[in-house]
Amino acid sequence: MSALEVTFVSADRTVWSGQASQVVVPAIDGSMGILPQMQPTLAILGDGVVRIIDQDGHADERTVSGGFVSVDADVVTIGVDDADASAPRTDLA
Fold this sequence. Notes:
CATH topology: ATP Synthase, domain 1
CATH class: Mainly Beta
Low-confidence stretches: none
CATH superfamily: F0F1 ATP synthase delta/epsilon subunit, N-terminal
Shape: globular
Structural class: mainly beta
Order of helices and strands: EEEEEEE
Mean pLDDT: 92
Strand content: over 45%
Strand order of the largest sheet: 1-2-4-5-6
Largest sheet: 5 strands, mixed, barrel
Distance between the termini: 25 Å
CATH architecture: Sandwich
Number of helices: 0
Helix content: under 10%
Oligomer: single chain
Radius of gyration: 12 Å
């Protein structure tokens, strides 16, 4: 199975870097899921949560307010001004 090579950066640091099976971002026109072999895409981010699911199924969630996401040949780049760790979700089964 192919994987996404993800680089998630804020203005002052690398937030997350590595391989992932799925990424979900808050695009300004709605939530956007990113999977391997997706068409090249460039989108503006709004307010919401970036969710990165690694190869082992573990999810890392960060709250963002604006930024961009670029997808090309299974390489995902997310750039934001700031990214805060989201509170753990309790509604997951």
